[in-house]
Amino acid sequence: MGKFKAIIDEVFSRPDNEIRDRAENENLQIMHLVSLLFAISEVFAICLFFLLGNGHYMKSFSVRQAIIGFSINLIYHICSKAINYKVDKSLTKKIYQGAYFISLIIWSLNISYYHYTIGEQITIMYMILVGITCFVTLAPRFSIPLISIPVIILYILMYRYDGARGMIAVNYFSFGIMFMAGSFIRYKLKIRSLNQMRELERINIALDREAREDPITGLRNRLCLSNDYDNYHGHRLCVIMIDIDYFKRYNDTYGHQIGDLVLKDIANATIEAFSKESSYRYGGDELMVVVKDPTEKYINQKLKQWLDLLSNISIEGVPHTLTCSYGYAMCEVYSTDDFLKLQKLADEMLYENKKNRPKWDE
Asked: What DSSP designation does 213 have?
């Protein structure tokens, strides 16, 4: 009983919304292309019927059904792109896609039954079921009824016609079971693949963040700064260089955990006063802020806000007031060399101002 329940749970398990949406969007994209190829094949069939056909069957039923098949696929192809890009609701996409599949199945049932009554192969319905199995990612709760119901209906029609004497029941239903099994296997493999792709994306995002962000402060690092140089070309920039006063003494006196807290608190104040996008950890106890197209008044206001935030920082067990020395410079920047020269000017201002930093209170 436990194994049976496990099988049922596996068959009817549901992926999370993100994976389900990815699968549905992929279905729409695949069927957008398949429907176009299907419509083209129906046009080709219509041309052959008119060129080669010489009987009532060829010129009436087949042509009519080919036109219907062409119309179903052309309508789906035209509408699927709009549905995929303009409709966000998953239910709407499911209804639209379900209507397409049901239309194809009804169409194929009609043709296949007619072919059976005149002693020909029921290949059209098999072709539709093969397409659903091979090209579409459908959850078992959808694929099982979508495949089994038309298989059963067609057999009932054939049985009512002549007792299904032209069909070996075991072989016929074996095909249906194979289609359902194939659809289930494709579904499980596709969901597994989408989960793996998502996990790889998350890992890549995390690795990219680690490569660009300082792990202690969350500020951008020097690698990120070097990648951002081009974004600063052609702008008037203000580069602010910041040095944490007596940072080594915090580490030596209170330990590196307190030193990390000092870094985090000052980084948070810098982000709040300026922005995360413009703030960098340049070195061990050095931060950098790059502001695009500022005025002198704006920079002075932001620096005042930043200094006020620093004065309100309090770390338990640390009696000292956190202070920072800083220097800034502004000019137009047209190249990386211009940026580096501006940074050097800000550095010179920093070290000049550092001479007047408050003394360490023992």
From this structure: B
